[in-house]
Task: structure prediction
Amino acid sequence: MGSIAGRSLGVVGAHGSSGSPTESGVDMRVVAVAGAKGGVGKSAAAVNLAFLSAATGLRTLLWDLDPQGAATHCYRMKSRVKGGASRLLGGKRDLQSFTRSTDFDRLDILPADGSFRVVDTVLGTRRWPERVIRKLIRPLDRTYDVVILDCAPGLGVVTEAVVAASDLVLAPIVPAPLAVRSLDQLAGFVGEQRSGLPVLAFLSMVDERKVLHRQMLDLVRSDRRFALSAVPVSSAVERMGLEQVPAVLVSPRNLAATAYRNLWAEIVERLGIDAEFPAAPPVSLAPGSAAGESGSTELTPTSLASATGPVQEEPVASPPPLVVSDALPGGDAAASGSDPADVAADPFAGWFVDAPRPDAVSSDAQPPEA
Result:
């Protein structure tokens, strides 16, 4: 470890977590997906990154702290926690008793609950509110390798507690000047709570047909606060609310899925996690899950596609640099530079597909902005 695409990356130690190795020998890492604003692809990132974490062989917990429960819904769970926020965060609780298994091996979720709307008030009654989440997570260090926190938008008491528990704050930013300003606010907030805690931003919902988005890509290209990966606007991501399955699984060749895979690789390197790319153990459906009535509980290589890496040994050819947005005619296949037949025949895009980053796509290939 040490660099991705020529950029040197610092390795982050286990700050918020206890740092004790899990049974798999990996020090537990806590990643908070947070931001001052909503509607920026925060929950979509949490859902896909949690799946990728499990797909790389890491035992993963996704904690949905957003009362809207988008991440919970995408994993076919109901947003309900017995006793609500008061019971979950009040006193000494065993967080493990609130978690649920998802349809996938090595991936559990702690669902959202409508009562999380008042979680700031609940934490405010505690003597040391900023320590509550850290104390709840700490006993999980022998159960999980990675904990991903999907935070509600805003900077309040809950965010303070999340910052105290985390090793990395991940911030999705839409390509707009005011959104970048919100990153400054988040970074300042984090710095006040815990000096030295890294904040990694990434551009989200990028549509290169828009002049402003292309300008923002140019602006952040040399900004070390931003990840190399930028997630394009994608119908595959939007459909997660209907399909209730991570986009990286159902649309592996989509450019957004490729961006999430590369973003996860950057996160793994920054956190110093010894994950295997691409030869991770296969992700299986848990018994009694949505595998259907056939009795099969394991995902096929075709359905897993690039979530666990390519099957063939030869490098996969890079998709042609056409367009980033699959909102154009042709849908996801057009966005990835492949026709539907190619996608069906060869769905293995690999972990490090050399698909063009949004800032690498020629603007000549884009329709003029209206």
